[in-house]
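Please check the following for our workbook:

***
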Amino acid sequence: MDEITIEAIHRLTDNATLHRAFNHLIAAGPGWLLAVPLPLLRGQIKGVVDGCPVPHDELLALIDSAQPRQRVMHSPMSAVFSERVNRLMGLCPSDWWFSPMRYPRADSPVGVFSHPSSVHFAATMDVLFSFQPLHLGQPEREAA
C-alpha cells in the first residue's frame, strides 16, 4: 500500500484539525471520525495537536473494530455514498471492509469503513450516504 499524504487527509476532512493519539492521526467532525496509523503518513505533521478529540473509548473501539470476518467492499465509490466517503476511498482505492458498530453511549449504530492497512472511518448514516433513508415505522412530521 502506498503512503497517505497529509494533504489527502486535509482534503478528506475539509481541513479539520488533525490530532495525534494512540499512534494514529485522528480527525473528527460532526458525525464522523477518521483514524490513520502514523507509519502510513507522508508529509509534515507540523500543526498536529497531541491528544484525542473524542472520548478515548470511542477512538479505541474504532481502531479495534476491523475484523477479517466483516464483508469486503471492493472499490465502493458510488453515488449512493456521500462525497466524503468517496474521497475516503481515494486514500486506499480498494479492499475496504464495511460493518455497523455501536458506540457505548450512542443511540444508533454508525457505519465503519476499515482498510487492511488499519485506516478506519466511522460515521453516522447521514454522513455516509448521499440520501436520507426513510425510517420505517415512524410517522412523518407535518409541516408547521
